[in-house]
Every structure is written in structure tokens, then in C-alpha cells.
Design brief:
This protein is about 50% helix and about 20% strand. It has one domain: Nucleotidyltransferase, domain 5. The chain is elongated, with a radius of gyration of 19 Å. The strands form two sheets. The protein has a six-stranded mixed β-sheet with strand order 5-4-1-2-3-8. Strands 6-7 form a two-stranded antiparallel ribbon. α1 crosses α4. It is α/β, with parallel strands linked by helices and about 280 residues long. It has eleven helices and eight strands.
Length: about 280
């Protein structure tokens, strides 16, 4: 039995994002294809067609941008069948879409996100994330794995440990080739040259896979989680303002977290959550 951890980032440039987030969605191997089919079916349910067909990608920053919420509130809630038909027309018409079609598409995006989060929950997936202010990147030498990645792998290891020797496979959104090589080297150094890394390599396969996000549903789900955590989720010490319109989605996200009790240092029973703020 194995769990695939699909990993993506949000806010890594920090141009207008409040935090930098590395997030992962862990899916058991036997559930992966069924989850992918469910997400594809939800696209058809809400948009009348595959939203992600062609060059269009299920990117959270496009689906959940502030404009989507403004457009969705232009008119009262449209019933599913009519909304789906209008949303499909809007996708086909593009810039020529009328007000009702634009409203229907915006409402469909929000209903789609809610249903996708429910699907992630129904397939017993768990989410993992390291959230930081971005300063971690500035102080990490090229040969060392950044602290936010270390915390992410630590939480993933605890999850696998509780699943009784399940193996973990990491699947990353592909970076620029040079950056991918650097990250592979840092991950290799961590799992080969540090005590905790060697210990965790018993359950986490140290060499990650890199895929194109527009072709890989699992990475698109990780992108959605990373975006919601960046803009809406707050832990102690996170003082930057959150977008309140995301609150209904965040209630669903909170239920996807993993929680465990571990003996860490002097603490015999320490509560550990799968989402951590790295200061």
C-alpha cells in the first residue's frame, strides 16, 4: 500500500500573496483513479464540459480570485441545470458572454470547489502544508533543504508511520529544470546525510516525481489547497489579513487535516497537526 503526496506551492513570489505555502494532498494508491474520475465528473456537472480541456487549467488563483465572488453575487443563485447550461455557453463565448452567463460561470466555480473539497474528504485524503513568510528561502544555502520542506516531510512521515508501514511517494509540480535539479539535490542530501532524513527514508521514497500541473489532477488539487491556506487559513502568529469570502471553503479544509500524538523530546504526548506555520 502506498500514498502519493501531490505537492504544489502558492505565493512563492510574495508579490501580492500574504504567505508562502507548500501544500500536499495525500491519496492512497487504490483511490487515486476514482478520485480523478470524480473530479472530472464534477467538471461536467458544474460546467457542462471539462473545464480543464485544452489550454485551460484548474488553477485556484483563476477560479477563486476576488472577481469570481463579485460576479457570483450579481444575481440570485441560479439552479443547477440552468447554471450549468449558462456556464458552458460562457466558456464557449468568452468575451462575448452576457451578464447572466458570467454570473452562472462564477457561481459554478464556487460550487465546483465545494464539491471537490467534499470529494477529497470522501476518498479519505489528508492534506499537509508548511506556511511561511518567505524569509526561509533567503537564508537557505543551495545544498540544504529548506525548513518548510523539512516540516512538510516530517508531518507526512508521521502520517505514514500511523498507517503502519505504508510507503510515501512524492509528486511535485514541475519547476524550471535548473530549480528541479537543485530541489532534487537538496532532498537527496536531506534523506541521505541527516539522521532524521535517513530514518524517514524508510517510509518516504526520497526521489520525487515531477509532472506538469495542467496534465495532473492531483497537483491541481494541491494547488487548490495551497491557495486556500495562503489566502484564508490562519494559525497563531499569522497576522496578515485573510479573505473572509473563503471562510466556507476553509471549514471544509480544516476537516482534511491530519492529527496525531507523538513523543517528541521531553514531551511524551505532543499533539501534532499536518499544517504548520514555520516562523
Amino acid at each position: 500500500m502506498a500514498y502519493l503526496l501531490f505537492i504544489d506551492e502558492s505565493g512563492h513570489d510574495l508579490n501580492d500573496s500574504p504567505y508562502e505555502v507548500i501544500a500536499g494532498v495525500a491519496v492512497e494508491d487504490r483511490d487515486l483513479w476514482n478520485l480523478i474520475r470524480e473530479v472530472q465528473n464534477l467538471e461536467i456537472k458544474h460546467f457542462g464540459k471539462r473545464y480543464s480541456q485544452g489550454k485551460r487549467e484548474l488553477k485556484a488563483k483563476a477560479i477563486l480570485k476576488r472577481k469570481t465572488f463579485r460576479l457570483a453575487q450579481q444575481l440570485p443563485d441560479i439552479l443547477l441545470e440552468e447554471r450549468r447550461s449558462l456556464a458552458c455557453k460562457c466558456l464557449e463565448c468568452g468575451s462575448n458572454a452576457n451578464q447572466k452567463e458570467l454570473t452562472a460561470l462564477a457561481q459554478s466555480k464556487l460550487y465546483f470547489v465545494s464539491d471537490v473539497l467534499e470529494a477529497i474528504s470522501n476518498f479519505r485524503c489528508k492534506i499537509f502544508a508548511s506556511i511561511s513568510s518567505g524569509k526561509i528561502v533567503e537564508v537557505s544555502p543551495d545544498d540544504l533543504l529548506r525548513k518548510d520542506y523539512v516540516y512538510l516531510f516530517e508531518r507526512y512521515f508521521y502520517f505514514l508511520e500511523d498507517r503502519h508501514e505504508s510507503l510515501g511517494i512524492m509528486v511535485f509540480d514541475e519547476l524550471e529544470k535548473a530549480k528541479s535539479h537543485i530541489l532534487i539535490g537538496q532532498i537527496e542530501n536531506y534523506f541521505k546525510k541527516t539522521f532524521k532524513g535517513r530514518q524517514r527514508s524508510n517510509l518516504i521514497i526520497p526521489e520525487p516525481f515531477f509532472v506538469h500541473s495542467d496534465l495532473t489532477t492531483g497537483v491541481q488539487l494541491a494547488d487548490l489547497i495551497a491557495y486556500l491556506l495562503c489566502w484564508g487559513f490562519r494559525l497563531n502568529g499569522m497576522v496578515k489579513e485573510a479573505r473572509k469570502e473563503l471562510d466556507p471553503f476553509l471549514e471544509l479544509v480544516k476537516g482534511l487535516r491530519f492529527r496525531t500524538i507523538k513523543e517528541i523530546g521531553d514531551f511524551k504526548e505532543m499533539e501534532v497537526w499536518s499544517i504548520v506555520y514555520v516562523k
